[in-house]
Structures are given as C-alpha cells and as structure tokens.
Amino acid sequence: MKYDEMVPAHIRALGPYVPGKPLRQAEEETGIKCTKMASNENPFGPSPRALEAMEHALREVHLYPENGAPELAKKIAENEGVTPDHILVTGGSTPCLDMVGRTLLAPGSNAITSERSFIVYPIVTRAAGATLKLVPTKDNGFDLDGVLNAIDTDTRVIFLANPNNPTGTMFTAQELDAFLDKVPDHVVAVIDEAYYDFAKYLAERRGVEYSHSVRYVNEGRKVIVMRTFSKTHGLAGVRVGFGIGDPVLMNYMARVRTAFQTTTVGEAGALAALHDDDHLQRTVVNNAKGAEFLEHGLRELGVHVTPTWANFVFFEVDDNAPGISQALEHSGVIVRPLKGWGIPQGLRVTIGKPEQNQNFLSALRRVLEKEPVR
Ligand SMILES: Cc1ncc(COP(=O)(O)O)c(C=O)c1O
C-alpha cells in the first residue's frame, strides 16, 4: 500500500508550516551577513539571568526533566493569581494550540478563527479532523461580531489572536468582555496572547485597557489564555509556553501532551526570565519606540501600514511582495512575505534595535526605488 493511501485524507490535505527563513540559510543564499526580522524574536536575545540559569541547568541534561515543569507552573500560577492546576506548561504555545485541537476537536466539529490570522490555527484544527470556519477581517483584524455569527451547534473552539499575527491588530478588554458574554456554553474561546507584554505596554501608553483575560478563567468562563516565553523573554529556541484554564480541561489537555515536552534548560531559563524585569522593560520600551519609527518611515515610503500592538509591523505593497522580500534579503534584511498566509501583497517586519530598523527602512527605500509599488 502506498503512503498516499495509508495517510488519512484530512492529514494529506494539510499544508506545511513555513517558518521565517533561518538566518544561516539566508546568509548562505545571499553570501552576505543578514539580520533576521522575520519571526518576531527578541532583538536583545534572552535575559542575562536566563542565560546564566540555562548554563547552570546544562549540567543536568543527562536527567529527564520533571514532567510538566511543575516549578515553573507554580511560579506562573503565583504571578497570575490562580492555583497551579490552572496552568499547563508546554513546549512553546504552538504545542498548546495543538493540544486544544486534539482535546476538543474531532471530525464533525468545527473551530472558528479570522482570515489573516495565525497560520497554526488551521493546521491544528484540520489535523484533528475538524472543519475550520474563517471569518473575513474587519480593518485587517478580528471581526468579533462576524465570529459570533459563525458559531453553530458543532462549534467547539474559537481561536482569537490578540494581538493578531500577522496584522498586529488588537481588540480591547471591553470588546472581549462584550464578545464573551454572547459566546454559548458549548464553545471554548482560546485567547492567544503571545504578544502580551508588548500590547500591555503599548495600550497603557495609548490609554486603553488591553486585557484582563485571567479574570475570565477565575470567573469560570470557558476560555484558555495562552502565553509564551518566545517573544518578550527571548526564549524562542528553548520552547516554553503555557495555557491558563479550568483545571478539568487542563487535566484533559495534559493527557495528550507528549511526555517530557519541556526541557530542564527551558524551564530554568523561563523561571529566571520571570525575575528579570529590567530585560522585559528594555524590550517593550525599545519596541514601542521602534513601532513608531517604522510605522512613520513606512508611511513616508508610501506603503499601506496597519498600526501595530505587537513587536512587528504589517504593511502592504503589491503582488510582488515576495520579490520585494527577496530583494531585501540581498540587502541583508530578512522579512516575512505573507503569500502563504493568503496575503500576496503583505509583508511583516519584526521590530528590531534602532540601527536594525533604520537599515531595514533604507534597504526598502532602495528596493522600492528600483521597483516602485504599482
Ligand atoms: C499569535 C501567536 N500565537 C502563538 C505563537 C507561538 O509561539 P511559540 O510556539 O513560540 O510559543 C506565535 C508565534 O509567532 C504567534 O504569533
């Protein structure tokens, strides 16, 4: 029997996840030194405290880690004002999303999300054999009323990215309050807050309330809040994320988590990162300044920019966005073309350090001079 016949149809239909181009590959292809501004990583790297803790933890890597990273779960629970059984630590938040799919979705049920949202939601939904309903965007972000209208009796999960990746849009705490009041009891809302610290800081400066999502968990609402150490904490390479939700649901999800998913090194790094407010502050302050600088600079270049609440800026050129991205790479800057996300004219650039942002804008200016946006 051929593998094509052995693999179930819903798995055969899956597309691959295409990550941002790795730095090494881009440098090999272009023959020049590149800066990666394609995967929303922290330009300052991990906190020095996390580095030290991870170096120390390396001495213990001959031992299996403690399953479920209990020390980290306890610390997160303490910070968030919940008990540890509300916390599910996973190898980044992507596996946590996958566990939502495998726990709550099955053939016959459906999940809802928005067009132009995180590319992992369709994968985890379809991998579970369920159907995905994609709601058109409103102003490049989630249309929460549209999502409500899409709910039917077979809906089990709603994936909400707040802020949204790749468009950087956000809905406020009050908008989410009003939305959740109308979500029926047979549906779980996943509130994916991968860019939590960036959005919180930007929202405080802009005078709006970003999120009080953990309050919903404490109120017993059907939500799972998801966070990650990959972004502000700069630990994308050691894979630590977590979900906050009802202990009964977290317990079911833990059953589909592969054993020893998080590592000794990752847990040590994450724990230490939670104690490094200086690094976090430096990261969010740099990001807010970079957001302003890039949005302004991009508008000056005549491209359409969506205001960001995260650590990246989404902008639209024309259908030659992949060509522009390639030309940028030859100037040493890797950005993310969004054709694979169904946005052929879209590009996403991660906010970097001031000199990286400046380099990117100069490179884009040169590229657009040669190849103006049609
Ligand atoms: C909206 C959103 N959710 C989740 C993630 C997953 O991050 P990780 O698996 O590194 O925790 C990302 C990463 O880019 C994201 O943009």
UniProtKB/TrEMBL annotation:
<keyword id="KW-0368">Histidine biosynthesis</keyword>
<comment type="similarity">
    <text>Belongs to the class-II pyridoxal-phosphate-dependent aminotransferase family. Histidinol-phosphate aminotransferase subfamily.</text>
</comment>
<protein>
    <recommendedName>
        <fullName>Histidinol-phosphate aminotransferase</fullName>
        <ecNumber>2.6.1.9</ecNumber>
    </recommendedName>
</protein>
<dbReference type="InterPro" id="IPR015424">
    <property type="entry name" value="PyrdxlP-dep_Trfase"/>
</dbReference>
<keyword id="KW-0663">Pyridoxal phosphate</keyword>
<dbReference type="GO" id="GO:0000105">
    <property type="term" value="P:L-histidine biosynthetic process"/>
</dbReference>
<dbReference type="InterPro" id="IPR015422">
    <property type="entry name" value="PyrdxlP-dep_Trfase_small"/>
</dbReference>
<dbReference type="GO" id="GO:0030170">
    <property type="term" value="F:pyridoxal phosphate binding"/>
</dbReference>
<feature type="domain" description="Aminotransferase class I/classII large">
    <location>
        <begin position="33"/>
        <end position="364"/>
    </location>
</feature>
<dbReference type="InterPro" id="IPR004839">
    <property type="entry name" value="Aminotransferase_I/II_large"/>
</dbReference>
<keyword id="KW-0028">Amino-acid biosynthesis</keyword>
<dbReference type="GO" id="GO:0004400">
    <property type="term" value="F:histidinol-phosphate transaminase activity"/>
</dbReference>
<feature type="modified residue" description="N6-(pyridoxal phosphate)lysine">
    <location>
        <position position="231"/>
    </location>
</feature>
<keyword id="KW-0808">Transferase</keyword>
<dbReference type="InterPro" id="IPR005861">
    <property type="entry name" value="HisP_aminotrans"/>
</dbReference>
<dbReference type="InterPro" id="IPR015421">
    <property type="entry name" value="PyrdxlP-dep_Trfase_major"/>
</dbReference>
<comment type="pathway">
    <text>Amino-acid biosynthesis; L-histidine biosynthesis; L-histidine from 5-phospho-alpha-D-ribose 1-diphosphate: step 7/9.</text>
</comment>
<dbReference type="Pfam" id="PF00155">
    <property type="entry name" value="Aminotran_1_2"/>
</dbReference>
<keyword id="KW-0032">Aminotransferase</keyword>
<comment type="subunit">
    <text>Homodimer.</text>
</comment>
<dbReference type="InterPro" id="IPR050106">
    <property type="entry name" value="HistidinolP_aminotransfase"/>
</dbReference>
